[in-house]
Fold this sequence. Notes:
This protein folds into two domains: 3-116 and 300-316, Nucleotidyltransferase, domain 5 (2-Layer Sandwich), CATH 3.30.420; 123-294, 2-Layer Sandwich (Nucleotidyltransferase, domain 5). Helix content is 43%, strand content 19%. The protein contains nine helices and ten strands. The protein has helices at residues 43-64, 84-101, 110-116, 161-171, 179-186, 209-225, 229-260, 275-288, 304-316, and strands at residues 3-8, 14-20, 23-30, 74-80, 105-109, 129-134, 139-146, 149-155, 264-268, 291-293. The strands form two sheets. A five-stranded mixed β-sheet has the order 3-2-1-4-5, with helices on both faces. A five-stranded mixed β-sheet has the order 8-7-6-9-10, sandwiched between helices.
Amino acid sequence: MAIILGIESSCDETSASICIDGEIKSNIIAGQAIHANYGGVVPELASRAHQQHIIPTVDHAIQQAKIHKNDIDAVAFTRGPGLLGSLLVGTSFAKAFALARHIPLIEVNHMQAHILAHFIDEPKPAFPFLCLTVSGGHTQIVLVKDFFDMELLGQTLDDAAGEAFDKTAKILNLPYPGGPLIDKYAKDGNPDAFKLPEPQIADLDFSFSGLKTAILYMVQAQEKLNPDFLQENLPDVCASVQSRIVSILLNKLKKAAKQTGVTNVAIAGGVSANSGLRESLLAMGSRYQWNVFIPKFEYCTDNAAMIAIAGYQKYLKNDFVGQDIAPLARMHV
């Protein structure tokens, strides 16, 4: 039997999870509401909140899994990418926990973990598969050949899709975090109400900075004609924005599937919780006869279950690190 403690602290959510022989027994997440006051994550406040939350969060995860802390065989933690101060808290805790109990330490790449979240529950994708990984900080298309054999096929050249949602929400005067609110209002809107451009970027790379500018100019122009424009048209604007972001993502994914011939297709990361993206991917999968894999909502956003499941796979390979390990703000798949 292998019992893995997973620790996630890459941004503004402190999370701990227990994985027993590849099965997730607990997944506890402590959020940080304070950032809503500032319209975005404040790194210093995030670090301090992680320090406050990490011990009770780990304790809760252990209790929910109905084990004792001395039963744990290894500690897996997010090494990066992420906010350095936040990563330091999780890394330091994991190192101390492992050192005190003389158990192995396992580093996990946060972006790989998002992809490996697909191996928490059935159905699980067969290798190889394509994964569109979309979050506030990353937008990537990855060819997944094995658990830790991944090839980056395309990525954003500027802003991430999640950032495009959140920055658009600011333009629309929606509170932070605005991405889920755009999704909510879009359900009642017309996605064809306002025409927005699709960036013409070569290969499988993405760009969202120009789209954000186009949205800003469109709103400003409409408000000059009608000061109540947003108040009267918010659902239509949200639906149009969401439709364009989703089409940018899925058109590149379709191109990747055609180039590689891979028909197992998955999405991961925080933006994969977006209902418009999930529904459109299922429709596209049906049209092109893909095998589509979409994780449960709780495994889309940052969580320790994905760290624990990735850690479990590394544990099986005896892939451990020493106490000299340090967090990295930037890491590649």
